[in-house]
Specification:
It is built from six helices and eight strands; from the N terminus they run ββαααβββαβαββα. It has 196 residues and is an alpha+beta fold. It has one domain: 3-Layer(aba) Sandwich (Aminopeptidase), CATH 3.40.630.30. A hairpin with a 3-residue loop joins strand 1 and strand 2. The N and C termini lie far apart (36 Å). Keywords: Transferase.
């Protein structure tokens, strides 16, 4: 059972509230931010997705010193399974996403927020695996995945269509619950072991 807000040393994470949207849209509409986002560039459509996220999707707001500095997404979904064991695969995988205001970049806030999102996924929700995907050209996103201990599992070549850059490469990262727990038990383990 999750008690909101989730708190870290510097942040509070809680489910999206409609009053958060103006602050969220203020950074999501910036060209340097929205160039990497898969969602709509229309504020009304974006608000609807945040306010009515649909089955398995949770939209979280990241607060720092009382203000909105970012947002997180966690979609819980079924793992692929053979038909006779499909029930065991239900709601075992989390798909992660994040967007941060560029004004707070370089302070480790995104890393802190995503680490708490992983804790939520593995400890509170009992997921067995999480994944995150990004355009290969989005270095800040995949470097964040590596900082939190995720491993690059796939490099898809020119499989993702970008609205202005054309066909782009995609990276897929993942982390298993047992890997995350091992790192929590041994926090001095160098996360660079996950890098390729």
């Amino acid at each position: 059972m999750t008690t909101w807000p989730l708190t870290t040393e510097r942040l509070a994470l809680r489910p999206f509230e409609p009053d958060d949207f103006d602050a969220i849209w203020s950074y999501r509409r910036l060209p340097d931010v929205n160039q990497w986002l898969g969602g709509s560039l229309d504020p009304d459509e974006t608000l609807k997705r945040f306010a009515e996220p649909g089955d398995g999707l949770t939209q979280l707001t990241i607060l720092h010193e009382g203000g909105v500095v970012g947002d997180l997404m966690l979609r819980v979904q079924d793992a692929w399974a053979q038909r006779d064991v499909v029930e065991q695969a239900k709601a075992t995988v989390g798909v992660l996403g994040w967007t941060m205001h560029p004004d707070v970049g370089g302070r480790g806030l995104a890393t802190e927020a995503v680490r708490e999102l992983l804790r939520l996924a593995f400890d509170d929700l009992g997921l067995r695996r999480v994944i995150a995907e990004c355009f290969a050209a989005n270095g800040p996103s995949w470097r964040l995945m590596e900082r939190v201990g995720m491993r690059r599992e796939a490099h898809h070549v020119r499989d993702s269509l970008h609205r202005t850059r054309g066909w782009q490469d995609e990276y897929v990262y993942a982390l298993l619950a047992e890997e995350w727990r091992d790192r929590q038990a041994s926090p001095n383990v160098d996360a660079s072991i996950t890098k390729r």
